[in-house]
Design a protein that fits this description.
The chain is α/β, with parallel strands linked by helices and about 170 residues long. It has 7 helices and 6 strands; from the N terminus they run H-E-E-H-H-H-E-H-E-H-E-E-H.
Length: about 170
């Protein structure tokens, strides 16, 4: 068992079960609006996952530049220096996981947790299964079930407004 998996087992408030490469905490919402959002994003990411790799790469390059500008990183080296000091990184609302994969590549000694409530998490887990420091968790980011004060960096890029109660999610 890798050190990353041992570390993962001590992060959550409850035992988590792995299915199809994904740790499942919760796979449905009691909020009707949230479940509709999950279903819509599951469909969206499934279609996107089937797109041409060149289109994906273009979008990802755009997203990288967006991320640098939005979060005040000069460039990839600057982000890497920042992430390298973090033991545990959470990509909350990871979608297809490309940012989580990016974080895992930039900081190979960090445990990166990619969390999403939609079924996109299964596509992401399959796509990036070879990365030893990247794990995928299906769960609501508004109730992560992560013990307090364990995460060193949380990225929740372009996601929080899709939760049932964004203010509560921030807590």
């Amino acid at each position: 068992m890798s050190n990353f998996i041992k570390k993962l087992e001590n992060i959550f408030e409850k035992e988590i079960i792995k299915t199809k490469g994904v740790y499942i905490i919760s796979d449905h919402s009691s909020y009707v609006n949230q479940q509709q959002t999950n279903d819509a994003f599951s469909d969206k990411w499934k279609k996107y996952n089937e797109e041409d790799i060149n289109q994906k790469e273009k979008l990802f390059e755009f997203q990288k530049k967006w991320y640098f500008k939005l979060y005040n990183f000069s460039n990839e080296k600057d982000l890497q220096s920042y992430l390298y000091t973090k033991e545990i990184i959470l990509d909350a609302g990871c979608g297809l996981g490309y940012k989580a994969k990016w974080f895992a590549d930039l900081s190979p000694n960090s445990l990166v947790i990619a969390m999403d409530y939609s079924d996109s998490i299964f596509f992401a887990a399959e796509e990036y299964k070879k990365l030893k420091n990247l794990v995928f968790v299906k769960n609501d980011i508004a109730d992560t079930k992560i013990k307090k004060n364990l995460i060193d960096y949380i990225s929740c890029d372009q996601v929080i407004h899709h939760t049932e109660n964004p203010q509560k999610t921030l807590k």
